[in-house]
Amino acid sequence: RQPLLIAKDLKRHFPIRSGLLNRQTATVHAVDGVSFDVKKGEVLGIVGESGCGKSTTARLMIGLIELDDGQIIFDGDVLGEDITLKELRRGVQMVFQDSYASLNPRLTILDSIAFGPKINGLEDPEGKARNLLKRVGLEPERFAHRYPHELSGGQRQRVNIARALAMEPRLVILDEAVSALDKSVEAQVLNLLNELREEFGLTYIFISHDLNVVRYISDRVLVMYLGEVVEVGPAEAIYHNQAHPYTSSLFAAMPSMDPDNRTEEPPLAGDPPNPINPPSGCRFHTRCKFAESVCSAAKPKLSVIGGDETHLAACHMMDPASGHSQAFKEAAE
Ligand code: SF4
Ligand code: MG
Question: 239: Cβ below 6 Å to ligand 1?
Fold first, then answer.
């Protein structure tokens, strides 16, 4: 499959003031050289602890946060050369966690959905909005003239999805889009997202801290740690055959649905280190039980593991053939 979006070496460093009387400036390495692609029609999940740069990465892709460095290529067009940010933003829509903050409280939901198409000169914005309302499970007769505060969280998120689709996007970025919903509502919205993807031929980037949800919806999964990609691969490989010690720890901490599948591995201890002064070399070395001296000295590169071109991880201790580190294997035996 062809890539729809390619992100190359994205960087975003936030300067902050620190120290006595705030006289020093420090740099937060929020996103530090992140590269990936998302193929046409697939769902790419992005996981990692909070503060790992998942949301910043998403916002960098559509210019909600300015890039310090890096390149975005959308369907073969380089942002800033072949297409403008405005053109990119029509093709890429985003749905956020807070369903209420995303909607104008003074617009009826019909007007909210029709607003984007209207200002972009798309045909029949209101008819489009009615059709989409219906498609996301909200009867236009009952819901079109309501205001956001008159809806439940799940209903509002359906409105946000309709609003995103009204722009006829090709890629939808869902940033913790179901995280605030009750479990039963969450399942319904996930099913709806799956149906809409097929029906409209969409591509999704699905960002969540909830590994079970990501597994349910994703074809491929990208794992981030402290502003960097540590592993990426098919969802099956990431969930059952992790190569990177961080991915393993992350998944060991995940409450398993399947009691036979629980590992003895202790969950990740403590919080990630401060992104102001990230650890040298492999950023995970301060928490990794397989760390050796090379780990703090040099940064490991993402490399193909286990002979599967689509599965990559960045760890010095990995055996490229099996996809597992030597130390890792010994520990498992
Ligand atoms: Fe652990 Fe070293 Fe691999 Fe980093 S490079 S994950 S510290 S073994
Ligand atoms: Mg976030």
Answer: no
The CA angle 197-3-195, to the nearest 5 degrees, is: 5
Reported pTM = 0.92
The answer, yes or no, to whether any atom of ligand 1 lies below 6 A from the CB of 225, is no
Structure tokens given for 264: 């003895």
- 39 C-alpha to ligand 1 centroid (Å): 29
Distance CA 148, CA 275 (A): 37
End-to-end CA distance of the chain: give it in Å, rounded.
Answer: 38
Rounded distance between C-alpha atoms, residue 333 and residue 60, angstroms: 42
Distance 283 CA to ligand 1 centre (A): 8
Q: How many alpha carbons lie under 13 Å from residue 169 in its C-beta half-sphere?
A: 29
What residues does each domain of the chain span?
Answer: 244-333
ipTM of predicted complex: 0.94
How many angstroms is it from 308 CA to the middle of ligand 1? Answer: 21
Q: Are 12 and 63 in contact (CB under 8 A)?
A: no
Angle CA(190)–CA(194)–CA(200) in degrees, nearest 5? Answer: 135
Instruction: Evaluate: CB of 223 within 6 angstroms of ligand 1.
Output: no
Q: What is the C-alpha separation between 300 and 317, in angstroms, rounded?
A: 9
- Most distant CA pair in the chain: distance in Å? 66
For residue 278, what is the DSSP state? P
Q: Residue 284 Cα, ligand 2 centroid: separation in angstroms? A: 20
CA distance 88 to 75: 10
Between CA 217 and CA 272 the distance in angstroms is 26
The two beta strands, 318-319 and 324-325, are antiparallel
Point out the ligand 1 atom lying closest to the alpha carbon of residue 292.
2
Residue bearing tokens 């760390």: 291
Note the pLDDT tens digit of each residue in 192-234: 999 999 999 999 999 999 999 999 999 999 999 999 999 999 9
